[in-house]
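I am writing to request your help with a piece of structural work I have in hand. Thank you for your consideration; the sequence and its tokens are set out here:
=====
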Amino acid sequence: MNKKKILRYTILGFAGIMMIVIFIFSSQSAAISNKVSEFFTERVFSAFGFSERFVRKAAHFTEFFVLGSLVMIFLSTFDIKHFICALISVVGCTFYAAFDEFHQIFVSGRSGQISDVLLDTCGAVFGVSLVFLILYLISLKNKNQQ
């Protein structure tokens, strides 16, 4: 197996793990989810003056920033234009965010929020955009070296 395929499937594995992590967090009841948020807010982020709401929303954004980045990197290992990779990545992450929020409807004390789907999508867009920019800069550098 060549290095490109190893990289491809490693990144795919990390994206899969990230999706599982997101699903596990979404599967927690409201009571457990609140305890986790309170723990991080009190122990880690209180020194910076962040509220629990901010921590919860930042977690949404960050999870999907990572997922969007990983999906974009994975797709870029194929012979597909980077713009198409970016589009597929954002749409795929948006669908996963919608599925995740729909799933929360069936979890005790939780509800699905369209605002969270939008926030998740924003995280994915930022992650995909960062990878897109890096890939663009790499391609410029490679063109200049030729």
About this structure: The mean pLDDT is 90.
